[in-house]
Amino acid sequence: MHFYLSLNNIYSIMDNTIQYNTHKTYDFINKLYDNLNFYDLYGTSLLIFFVITFIVFIIASYTYIIQYKQDIVSDWSNKRCKPYVIPFAGLINKPKDKTSSEFTKENFQYCITDVLLKIMKIVLSPLILLTNIVKNTFSLISQSIDKIRMILTNIRTNIKEITQDITSNIFNVIIPIQQIIIAIKDTFYKLQGILVSSLYTVLGSYYALKSLLGAILELIIKVLIILAAIIVSLWVVPFSWPAAASMTAIFLSISIPLAIILVFMTQILNIQTSGIPKLRCFDKNTKMKMKNGEFKPIYLIHAGDILDNDIIVTSTIKVLQEGLRMFNLYDIIVSESHIVFYNNTWIPVYKHPHAKQIDKHTYNEPYLYCLNTNQKIIEIFSPASYSKNSQKIIFTDWDEIYDNTLQKILKYLYPNTFINLQQSQHLVQQIDTLLFEGFPNNTLVKTRKGFIPIQHIELGTEALDINNNTHGIIYGKVELVHPNYTNNTNNTNNTNNTNNTFHHLLVSGKQFTIHPNNQQTKNDYNQRIDNILHI
Known about the structure:
The protein is of the alpha+beta class. The chain has 10 helices and 19 strands. Helix 5 runs antiparallel to helix 6.
């Protein structure tokens, strides 16, 4: 019994074990097949199917091709890309210069390209359509713009034609008028030429008469002076008093009418004997402001120095004081006739309300000084305002050309130029350049003391002409530099380069003689301006 139970237990255990292992195996197999997909389960069968299908397709295609080869060749362009033809293209229609494999490969590439082109054409057809729409739109816009341009061109052409017609009509009217105006202008110019010629003829006659009367006047004065000396000598000796009395009566009978004639000639005809003219000069200690801001006495200024406001000194003049009336104007010592700018006009110094005459007994300087500048003015700060840079007084330079005389000079130098206000200042700066006239340092001048180098001439020396007659007294010396030279150093102790320095003279008779071997008569420095102004 006990054994029977044991055996049953063994069978029971084995049965349980078998069932357990069976279920475990079943679960493993189920799990194994649960993770497989379609290709894992049927891939081999599917591959075998495709292989068999491909073989059947090849065999069927080959059989079809063999049977219908001629039909395929005759319609090769349409059938060359058929699936059943592509593999056998080299067998069907092979060219003589290619192998079957080469032509099959070439045909395959052709078919692939053709298929891709058709596919891309279908795929890109919306984009091509959109591009064509945009293209057509812009084409329409371009056509519209072209039409607008054509319209504008027509409008412009019409306006041009109308304008040309109007202009032509205007010219048809203006040209005859212009010809008339030119004829009138030409007539006026001819009339002006006749009048100018007549005026210069009359003026020349006047100056000739004036010169003749001046010479006669000077001769009469000299005769009267000699006669007066004789009368005085006769009055000195008692026994000659009767002769002295008779000659005195004769002298008075001659001198009184001559005095009346002299007054008439000097006041009415403005005829004068030769002598030193009224000078326009400054005291030697008159301070000039230089470009560098320093102040320098006028007698130390050299031609070529640059003053304040870029005023270039073109020449320096030293003259005899010769008993002129001197005035104090804002502590500036200046001669009576110098021209000063006051209340927007130019007036002589003696007419200035603030000018005070200096007692001639207290002013005994032998020489006066003046300048010529490229701007034809001299700017001087009154001594009381040196530190303030104010109270600037404007004088003309030595030439004293301003207003009408300045315009006359410019018109003479630029006869064919219309001068406006802007050009005027530039042209003024060219006056001294265009009228430059000077003599080298060693030029010999004929004087009563012989021929003397012009740079060593002493003021008060008598100048002689070719015939040893007097030209008058040398009352002034002029130092000039070449117009293209400027002394930018403005050094008080600096003297101009002698190679650039020239000299000129001021003579009471307005002329002097140079060169002992080939004697030449030259006009003095003032004549370069006076001849233009007919002074």
